[in-house]
Amino acid sequence: MWIWRSAMLLPVLAAAAASAGCILTRDIPDPALDIPVAYKAARTTAADALPALDWWRGFHSPELTGLMEEAQTVNLDIAAAAARIIQADQQAQIAGAALLPSVSVGGQEAYFRTSGSSLSGLTNRGREVVNYAGTLSAASYEIDFWGKNRDAMLAAVETATASRFDRDVIALTTLASVANAYFQVLAAQDRIRTAERNIASATRILDALKQRLSAGTGSDLDVAQQESVLANLRAAVPSLRQTLVQNINALATLVARPPESVKVKGGSLNQITAPRVTPGLPSELLTQRPDIRRQETQLAAATANVGSARAQFFPSIQLTAQGGYQSPALVALFQPQAAFFNLAGSLTQPIFDGGRILGNFELTRAKQDELLQTYRKTVVSAFADVDNALTAVRQTTERLRRQREVVAASRRAFQLSEQQLHAGTADIIIVLNTQSTLFQAADVLSQAQLARLQAIVSLYQALGGGWEPRIERAGNAL
User: Fold this and answer.
1) Does residue 292 contact residue 382 with C-beta atoms inside 8 Å?
2) pLDDT tens string 82-125
3) Which of 39, 59, 191, 285 is 20 to 30 A from 438 in CA distance terms?
4) For residue range 238-263, what is the model confidence (pLDDT) as tens digits?
5) 38-101+146-314+358-477 adopts what CATH topology?
6) How many other C-beta atoms are found inside a 10 Å radius of the C-beta of residue 108?
7) b vs e for 48-73, b when ≥16 Cβ sit within 10 Å of the residue's Cβ?
């Protein structure tokens, strides 16, 4: 009977497949991206300074390198992202299970006794019956004729791939945070040292003014003004020390350790080398930025979900099978005459469901369109990020060069005014102005150094971190 029914179903299924062939073709959306030939802010596209995989080594700081490598292995955000990868992989495995039949084996021993009573009033001993059975069952299995389960599995696989790129995004953000926090530590140390030098200089000026006051050539106002300058310099130090501690604690969090167990030696921004980085071509960014790859795979998952939702419009073909042995005697259980089996096939075609299938299909298409627009925005934003970072590197480099000139000129002016003060020929107003200019310029210099290094870190982040060496470059090296 089942074979006859299956034979009757085949022409129906063939006709349905022929009529649905164009419908089952997955509509992969075209992002229609406008990829520029080169970055607007890039002067060159030379490949001799593309980001290395261990790009942080370009700063030539062993302590920074150690913190970076430690963060990659112990950072809690990265660990959580890795756990999400495992979850996504298992979800993909669960989704793929629908493509295979579920088979189970079972054994049963049934014992029952018939009643010994009868309608005539006579009694008998009744009967005791024992029945043994061993079965192999294939639960209701849906033939994936329309690709519904296949597309659902593909969507889960793409989602698992997206989780890997998400982990890369978190890792890149973590590494950039470590670098920026470390440079903040160095900048705070530099600014504290600058403040201490300024305090020493202001103290010398105050002592000189007090000597002029004692000699009758100065005034209380001159001393009071210098005391005010000195007090302001000292008042600025606690906030700098607070910034130093906060960034050390931030580093401790990034390497998953309590602040008490983290010792950051630091040093000076002057000891950090500023690496040269070229951005490559904009088209290469599409394969280098993990957030772009994540959005791309999420779009692919949404496209597969559309295919799975579309397949729900078509008939569902179910197969059920069971076979085994059944016997009242255990010794005869596996004899040929004790074998049994049953097969069943069914076809269910949705006719009216209140719009549920259509609503689900339109919902998945809307999600696909949302992810398409998000993907396009991510790509466009990535190009803007690189251009902004390139501009920031160039402008902060120029700013640093000019600020060094400001510091050099201000220091010379202050030295001359201090010499004239000790010689008794200086105007106190000029002394106050030159020292204030120098103190401010020296502090701004540290901030300019920090801004340049952070701009370089931003460029690495905008480019997606380190790049694999190009094959042609490796071949030339050989």
Assistant:
1) yes
2) 999 999 999 888 888 888 888 778 777 777 766 665 555 555 56
3) 59
4) 999 999 999 999 999 999 999 999 99
5) Outer membrane efflux proteins (OEP) (1.20.1600)
6) 11
7) eebbbeebbbbbebeebeebbbbbee
